[in-house]
Design a protein that fits this description.
Thioesterase, alpha/beta, six-stranded parallel beta sheet, Rossmann fold
Amino acid sequence: MHLTERQRPPAGDWFAGPGPGPDPVPGAPRLICFPYAGGTASVYRDWQAHLGVPVVPVQPPGRGPRLREPPYTDLDALVSDVTDALLAAGLVHDYALFGHSMGALVAYEVACALRGRGAPGPRRLFVSGSRAPHLYAERADHALGDEELRRLVTDLGAVAPGDRVAGAYLERRLPVLRADLTACERYRWRPRRPLDCPMTAYSAVGDPLAPVPGVEAWRAYTGASLLRRHVPGGHFFLNGPARRPLLRDLRTELTRTTEEKEPSWTY
């Protein structure tokens, strides 16, 4: 799905407000954040307060204030349109990209698209809870029936068993979740030269969708350094107490001065 020029919403519709927080650390880059499949920009609503940098959550169609817009089922179209919006909004100057799960794949492809258009590259790319792009054709979760899809999401930890409120929310989100999964599973990586920016890749101890070898495979996607972080939790560690070490690490990386050296080790 690619919107025509007449149908395309204003660039600002793509970006949610960062939420309350203190003034950003001087010299820190803007962090542009992409949600996971079925997710909304609200997962990042308090990140500016925790990180001390300007945070720009991306809000794709089909959710939040854009609920009435059809979600994308083609990842290339999504990437092209969000890249247009970033350029139109003037957001690709001194910035970093973060994405979790599907969001990591979108963040990587956006970085490639921006490079192809001659735009400045990100200061850093953070990928979380995601296997490397060439491994995305290995699953076909979008074809699951509704009951199987509910079970998968529950097993991954997005919904606690017996939580009626979260269960009702999931029920409303099933169509956009299925659309997002379709976009991911139809995606096919195209070989390109590695990105120039350094990367940090996060894996979670109990995440069956992004096991350590699949996350380690991101190393081939940068010509600079890659830091590997292994954190507690499961696939949705982004939403629970296990996100604390992630936020601490992101703050350290984003507010590092040019005089401070990047760690030479990985884990």
